[in-house]
Each structure stands twice: as C-alpha cells, then as structure tokens.
Amino acid sequence: MALIEPTSPTLKRLKRTSTKEMKLEDEAKKFTKKKRTTKAMKPLTARRYLAGQALSGLLSGSRGAIQMQDLKRAAYDWADYMLEDSDE
Fold first, then answer.
1. What pLDDT does 25 receive?
2. How far is CA 55 from CA 16, 40, 41, 43, 79, in A?
3. Rounded CA separation 74/78 (Å)
4. Assigned domain for 27 exists
5. Distances 77 to 18, 39, 42, 65, 81 between C-alpha atoms, Å
6. Is residue 30 part of a domain?
7. What is the pLDDT of residue 83?
8. Structural domain harbouring 65
9. How far apart are CA 72 and CA 56, in angstroms?
10. pTM of the predicted model, to two decimals?
11. Is 19 a member of any domain?
C-alpha cells in the first residue's frame, strides 16, 4: 500500500492551521494566568446566587425574545422575594 503524498498547498495549509492553533493556545494560557481584579470578581452573595437560580428558571421557561434588563429585574425580584423573612 503506497502512501499518498500531500500536495504542497495542502502542507502549507496544515502548517498554517497548526501555527494558528498554537497561537490561540498560547493566548488562552496567558489569559488563564492573568490575575483578575476584584472589580471583575464580585463576591457571590446569597442574593446574587438566588438571582442566578431564578434567571436559569426564567430562561428555561421563556419563549421568544426577552429584553435582558426585564429578565435581570425579574430574577432579582425573585431573589429578593426568596430572601424576605416570612412568618411561616
């Protein structure tokens, strides 16, 4: 069985793709090593956690396009409701 030699343009394309992948990989490694500021990492409070849970429920039950501000407001409304002290 004879091996098929790739044509010159094919080899160039493979080398070019490999180089692009290496550049992307290097960029990803640099990004993961980069220190994040406290502005970028806000603390996870109970309100934010519950708003995230509510948001996932709102998104899974939604049909069609929804305004992000309205969705965010509704998620935080649900979080505030869940955090309210109740007599029950």
1. 87
2. 42, 20, 19, 18, 9
3. 6
4. no
5. 49, 24, 20, 20, 6
6. no
7. 95
8. 46-83
9. 11
10. 0.52
11. no
